[in-house]
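Protein modeling request. Please complete all fields; requests missing the sequence field cannot be processed.
Requester role: graduate student
Desired output: 3D structure, token encoding
Chains: 1
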Amino acid sequence: MRRRILQMLMFGLVLPGGCGGVGDGPEPLPLDHVNCAKCSMLISTAANAGQALVPGEETRFYDDIGCLAADATPMKSGARRFVQLANGAGWAPVDSVWFAISSSVSTPMAYGFVAFSSEAEARRADVKGVARKWNEMVPRAGGR
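Delivered output (144 residues):
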């Protein structure tokens, strides 16, 4: 009996530490069940989505990479930001990808920001033939 109580206490102490914490990588995007943290639109597609993992906070999801770039909240120290790569290629940290501003890709909030794993892909997709890094995208989104 005493052993059983000890096990229950240990489980009770360990379980809360695992809840609400920020993982190492991107979280699954609950399509049609979560609203964009910036514009409040329901997120119905992963294409051009983003997310921010801020220590001590719930994951913030975004329907548009531009919404992620425009939201100052996840700029806190220790935050990790991820974007969905073009053509459904998966999630990647914002600092490891290249961005294009596209006039041919329709994004939910019309920012036109698209993420690519290679500089060459971003140049081909960009309206001016320029590949951009994350620190260039943030000021472009801030004026909206």
